[in-house]
Design goal:
mainly alpha
């Protein structure tokens, strides 16, 4: 004959401290520097930070923080900037290339 045995439920353990793990950065330091320069150039094209913020559809404060390096640049904001400037996204954070050199094979064009 089998016996049933009552077992007391253990109280739930309280959750441990939250670990706020930041995801790895999307852009390198060099790319972030180029993106900040792109924001500065866009500010000059639009005339002010407020005009740029309006063109991007974000708040003035958000653009100022990104432009001054006090807030990380989000991929969404980079996409908005590229659309506002009508340029490919990659052109905002890639290093400049020499126009006389083919980016694919490295061949030099005759002047």
């Amino acid at each position: 004959m089998s016996h049933l045995r009552l077992v007391r439920d253990e109280p739930p353990t309280p959750p441990g401290p939250r670990k706020n793990k930041m995801p790895p950065p999307i852009f390198t330091r060099e790319e972030l520097g180029r993106l900040r320069v792109s924001f500065e150039n866009a500010r000059h094209q639009y005339g002010s930070w407020r005009a740029l913020a309006a063109a991007l559809g974000v708040t003035y404060e958000a653009v100022i923080k990104v432009g001054h390096g006090k807030h990380p640049v989000s991929p969404g904001l980079v996409l908005r900037l590229a659309r506002a400037l009508r340029v490919p996204v990659e052109s905002l954070y890639r290093p400049l290339t020499v126009a006389s050199v083919c980016p694919t094979c490295g061949a030099r064009r005759a002047p």
